[in-house]
Design goal:
This protein has 4 helices and 6 strands. The chain has 178 residues and is α+β, with helices and mostly antiparallel strands.
Length: 178
C-alpha cells in the first residue's frame, strides 16, 4: 500500500484521464490512477513532482494518464446537479458576487411561473439575494445576473480543475497547443 510523501500530500489529488486517442474522458484521484497503472489499464503521460512510497517502491504521483484500450463514450454532457452548478458558478452568488461554500440554487424564472430545472434557468445565489428575489423574475425586482448561465460541457468542467500543478493538462483541454 502506498503512503503519502513526507510533505503529507494526499493520494486524492486530481488526475486527468485521457481516452486512447488522447481525448479527455474524466478526472479521477491519484490513488485510482496508480491502481489502474498496476492493473495495466493506463499509461502515465505526465506526473506531479510529489512522490508516494510503499515499502519497496517510490514513484511520482500521476497527473495525466491515458487508457490503453479505447472507450466508446461520446457524451460531452455534464450532469445537472447542485454540485455542478456551484462549480460552474465558482461558488459565487450570480446576483451580488458573494463567494461562499454555502449558497442556494435559484430558479431565474420561478417554478411557479413555468421555470424548469435547466442549466440556463439555475444559478448559485446567496440566501439574502434568493430571499430578496423571492418568487419574482430578476427584472421585476431590478436585479441583474453577473453572468448569464449556460450549460457547460465536459471540457469546461475539466478546465475548472486546472491550477499551477495542472499546467500539463492545458494542451489536452484545448487551452494551448502542444
Amino acid at each position: 500500500m502506498f503512503h503519502t510523501s513526507k510533505n503529507g500530500l494526499p493520494l486524492n489529488k486530481a488526475v486527468l484521464v485521457l481516452n486512447m486517442n488522447y481525448a479527455p474522458l474524466m478526472i479521477c484521484t491519484a490513488k485510482r490512477a496508480i491502481c489502474l497503472k498496476y492493473l495495466e489499464k493506463v499509461d502515465i503521460v505526465e506526473t506531479y513532482q510529489e512522490e508516494v512510497h510503499s515499502p519497496s517502491v517510490t514513484e511520482k504521483l500521476p497527473s495525466i494518464v491515458k487508457l490503453k484500450d479505447f472507450v466508446h463514450y461520446n457524451s460531452m454532457d455534464v450532469v445537472l446537479s447542485r454540485k455542478n452548478i456551484m462549480l460552474r458558478d465558482k461558488h459565487t452568488c450570480q446576483y451580488c458576487g458573494f463567494k461562499s461554500s454555502s449558497l442556494t440554487i435559484d430558479h431565474i424564472i420561478p417554478r411557479e411561473r413555468g421555470g424548469l430545472d435547466h442549466w440556463d434557468n439555475l444559478v448559485a445565489a446567496c440566501q439574502n439575494c434568493n430571499i430578496k428575489k423571492g418568487n419574482r423574475s430578476p427584472e421585476e425586482i431590478n436585479m441583474s445576473l453577473i453572468r448569464l448561465p449556460r450549460k457547460p460541457n465536459r471540457i469546461h468542467y475539466f478546465q475548472q480543475f486546472i491550477n499551477h500543478d495542472q499546467a500539463a493538462w492545458r494542451p489536452y483541454l484545448f487551452l494551448e497547443s502542444f
